[in-house]
């Protein structure tokens, strides 16, 4: 049985492993070098310090996916707007984990006082993330053309937005 729960220290290697797959094998993230466990520890601490959620989907001790919110931009006037991030382990899609993670993330972000949630989705040719966000009421707010270059090609990003409060 899968459980959605807050990130723990023991989950960091699993999170790092999932993210490394997307860094090296896809254009879903514009990072080109995987983050190590210590980098994830620092990122998780900053998210917790901001009072924002970082969740994992687990079966037993295995991390099957994760989702978190971070401040959308560092300037103070953006303080009520968050950006979501969600990744599933290879082979874990199609089981409803993305829906479970995003639903809980939205709920907890709302409880934290966030008013807007932004999703910045790379145009990868795979519509799964766009469909997932649309299912929760996110609406397309814009497109940034050819803003990333990875794996030998230019990549657009699509901005999706959801009003939380």
From TrEMBL:
What PROSITE patterns does this protein's entry cite? GNAT
Q: Which GO terms describe its molecular function?
A: acyltransferase activity
Q: Which InterPro entries match?
A: GNAT_dom
Tell me if Magnesium is a UniProt keyword of this record.
Answer: no
The question of whether Isomerase is a record keyword is answered with no
Keywords, ordered alphabetically: Acyltransferase, Transferase
The Enzyme Commission number assigned here is 2.3.-.-
Span of domain N-acetyltransferase: 2-165
List the PANTHER family: ACYLTRANSFERASE FABY-RELATED, N-ACETYLTRANSFERASE
**Name listed for the protein in its UniProt record:** GNAT family N-acetyltransferase
- Organism equals Nonomuraea guangzhouensis
